Model the fold of this input.
Amino acid sequence: MYDIIVIGAGPAGCMTAKRIAETGHKVLLAEKMEFPREKSCSGILIKKSIQMVEAEFGKIPESVFSNPQINQGIILTNEDDQVFKFESEGYNIWRSSFDYWMAREAESSGADLRTSTTALSCKEEDDLVVVKFKNNIETAQVVIACDGAASRIGRGLLNVSPDYIFTYQTFSRGTIDLDSQFFHAFLDPRLSQYDAWFNVKDDFLIMGVGVKNPSLMEKYHSRFVSFLKSHYNAHIESIVKTEVGIMPYITPEFSFYLGKGRVLFAGEAANLLNPLGEGISSALASGYVAAEAIKFYENPDFMSDSYKNGLKSEIDYMIRQWKFLGEISPKFKY
Ligand SMILES: Cc1cc2nc3c(=O)[nH]c(=O)nc-3n(C[C@H](O)[C@H](O)[C@H](O)COP(=O)(O)OP(=O)(O)OC[C@H]3O[C@@H](n4cnc5c(N)ncnc54)[C@H](O)[C@@H]3O)c2cc1C
Done:
């Protein structure tokens, strides 16, 4: 019997589990994969993420960085070929080692970290939540579902069918005439059904596209690569790895899933995502606020209000960011 069960050890789950464990509660942090595990991500920590991580977890270790260590910001080209340069220093990390580090830190703070532990469903029974895992059953006063964009817990409990963007990126060796210090995003609808991007991590040139229809991933990707060849002199010597991911599809009608009864949702499981796929900061922020809200676990209505109120500024920020992107590109009109 746990006080709190946190499902998923990404940024949202590690943040919330660590903070709750520090207050002396008995916490289970259940993760379906073995660490270090891959998570498709560009691995850019914006300033806000760095501040939250360093305040809670301490200095980010050298071992999680990729080269260049500092990301100088984003260069965005809209569908009219207008270029917008946003300079703001962030970090460039590998998610496999970054998440592993955070999960171990949560464990050092007292959370019971269990890997290879897949949660199948949650059900409220007599003021407790019963969580069915693949191999056993656990109960807790509260569950915080941080199981990412495809949230199995969310689908089961809220009866919603989340909407996704599918991402496809390749890691190549080669050369290109684009500044490796920046993340480059292209919004021309001929190149993707969402955005197309280029960034550098260690010796890899990473080229990716976001699509609604997964069967079109490779078609859009090859179009984007041809564009990079013709416009930025890309030369690809070899493709080392391809990666598929998902993220919530944020449209003007989208909803947040903050919780039901004794189950709260944080990070992408709550449908929180900033423009152009920046989601680590909202995952950390919602994990942080969820840990505050569980102080009221004896009264689920109070807990849920506290969570909603605590997230208000984060959600307002998110909506402002989407509106701002809509001014740059009509396809993102909020
Ligand atoms: C291609 C791509 C590039 C991106 N680039 C960036 C970027 O540069 N910067 C940025 O800020 N954001 C980026 N994002 C978004 C970012 O990756 C997410 O917003 C962020 O990881 C969300 O964190 P989370 O903790 O909510 O979920 P996740 O990081 O997805 O973590 C969820 C965890 O739950 C586990 N899990 C899932 N189901 C279960 C289950 N049933 N039981 C137990 N465990 C489970 C998963 O294995 C995983 O460890 C990118 C996303 C994509 C797809």
